[in-house]
Amino acid sequence: MRISKKVLPVAAACMILALQACGKDDSRQETAVSPAGAVNPSPVKPEAAATSSVEASWNQKAQAYIRINNELADFNSPDNAALARWAAEAQAKVEKGDFKAIRGGTANFGDAFVRDIKAALNNPASMPETDGAARNLLDTVQKYLPNWKKLEEYNTAKKFEDDNGAEGRTMLPMYREGIEKINIALDQFSKKVDGVAKEASAKVMARYKSDGKLLELYNMEAMAAARKIVNTFGSAEDFKNPQKIATANEQLSMMEAKLTEMKTEHEKRKVESPKTLPMIDQYDSIYSALTSFAGKYRESRKEPVQFNEAVQEFNRAVESNNRMVD
Questions:
Q1: What are the tens digits of pLDDT across the range 200-231?
Q2: Contact assessment for residue 84 and residue 78, using Cβ atoms and an 8 Å cutoff
């Protein structure tokens, strides 16, 4: 039995060069305006400025790809067993020649998708593998979307009543080919973006650590440990694997330790420096969701089907985390 789960991508908490987006930082100094003719005591070195610009460009591109991937998350991820079953049944009908059973979803690849992915590709930051996957996805969509949309509109207008389905049967082979190619391209793109997101998160955590932003660091570490638990299990059979259970238990212990540190640091920050907290403060919600996630995971070790509910709690934590940075 497969475990039906939809795991939301988590956006990097903030761009490395724009940490203030997570909330005001009272320790940040305002830039002083020097009198005319005065010598700047700390001029910015050209090489430092260049590095900063490259880093900012990379982050902008990473965030763009993460947003695109997030917006496409529902396309291939039925979020419960019933939807997955219905999708499989519809696909089986299509394979037998039923052009009326095609899936929806053309709106996922409309003008906004094309605009956003082209803008990301035009960003000069070096991300060759992800760019290649993005370009392939764009090219594949642009090749097959017109036929898919035409068939979708044909079915919506019920034109098959007039021609006994002749045009629908003509368009179906290209639809079948296109859906398969789009699914493959999207899967490749998502895998590359997942790697970019991990790299972006690692950079942010390193910056948090160096800047002493402990609340943000503990939160990201707890989320990372929870995601590793989620990614450990793909089917009920996995819960019979002692090594997978041991790995997940180790991550659970780490997650709960980081949650404790996060909660302590959050309470401290609320008292000592509340202006440094995000405008939409979701740390309590994240703590609650991941605590529930821990409980559902523990239940899953006896009843694997409960892991679907654990994943839902993890996704709730992801959504709360992303609300702090939108």
A1: 888 888 888 888 899 999 999 999 999 999 98
A2: yes
How many structural domains comprise the chain?
2
Kindly state whether residues 220 and 285 are assigned to the same domain.
Answer: yes
Answer yes or no: is 11 within a domain: no
Q: Residue 154's domain spans which residues?
A: 55-193
pLDDT bin (cut points 50, 70, 90) of residue 71 is confident
Contacts 24+ apart (CB under 8 A), 255-259: 255/222, 255/225, 255/226, 255/229, 255/290, 255/294, 256/294, 258/218, 258/219, 258/221, 258/222, 258/225, 259/218, 259/222, 259/287, 259/290, 259/291
**Alpha carbons 298 and 303: distance in angstroms, whole number:** 9
Q: Could you tell me if residue 45 is inside a domain?
A: no
Percent of the chain as helix, strand, coil, to the nearest 5: 75, 0, 25
Q: Which residue has tokens 């909330």?
A: 23
As separate numbers, helices (DSSP H) first and strands (DSSP E) second, the chain gives 10, 0
Q: How far apart are CA 86 and CA 65, in angstroms?
A: 30
